[in-house]
Amino acid sequence: MRFAERNFAIFWLIIFLILFLFWVDLKKKKLLNQFAQRHLLAELTKQFDIRKYRIKQILLILGIFFIIVSLLRPQWGFKSQMLQKKGLDILIAVDVSKSMLAQDIKPSRLERAKLALTDFTKILKGDRIGLIAFAGEAFLLCPLTTDYNGFLLSAGALDVDIIPRGGTSIFSAVKEAIKSFEVGQKYKVLIIITDGEDHFGALEEAMKLAKKESIRIFCIGVGTKEGELIPIKDKDKNKTFLKDNTGAVVKSSLNEENLKKLAFATGGSYIHATAKEFGLELLYKEKLSKMEKKDIETKIAKQYHERFQIPLLIAFFLLGIEFLINERRANV
Fold it and tell me: Per the CB 3.0–4.6 Å rule, which of 43, 90, 129, 293 could disulfide with 86?
């Protein structure tokens, strides 16, 4: 036998009831002693059957005990059942180049993306999710999993210093995604979160490769077209701005054209992230949730039979007897 509900602290109610009944008995005796002298009590209470009173108390306690057992949902006996979990495999590639430090979307492009990933996991319905970090190259931070807490631990590690090669290579993110999906997998979704800059000129190759591998790419563009300076800290930990090789201050702007071209070429879509609506939740509700899902996991599970009715019937039976017992003596 097993219990579906494990809150056994409810049994303290029985102890409380026993103590309460004991307190009531003491209170009654005290009141009777105040009401009449001791030698007159036997005459006054001769119609009261103490044995029946004790039986009623025991039946009440047992009745409540079996009600509590019923609330814990006892189960025994089971049948085997095949359970199939359906969902999508979603890889998310996050740009961690220094341009993601720009603060045209608060608190910064990268920090806003990390916050959005936390919200995104709250609406997933059994889908597997994985994480790729990319800059001048890419690597898999978290393989496809339904362990959303593990995914968020990886997302919390996203930083502009985790990839030594600078710049932005969207092609490397696509290539890493291909390696991360299972061989022969039919349903492949890649979400790329970036400001759209591409310093290696391989965007056309990324499109061709994604189409060849049947990967649908959805792009989230972070930043503004007007752009923003990129705040960094110098060797003395003082705040300054990123400069190019000529010493000029770098201004990073959102390149929507690159992202639209990549998304539309692979059957995906593009969303411009804003401070209020980052776009991941909208993307899931409007696009991903409507896609055909695959079997993520199949397992055989035991389905136990509910037996709460038995202790509940016993409780009703005991309480019914308790109600019918008369505390008065039969022949007095």
Answer: 293
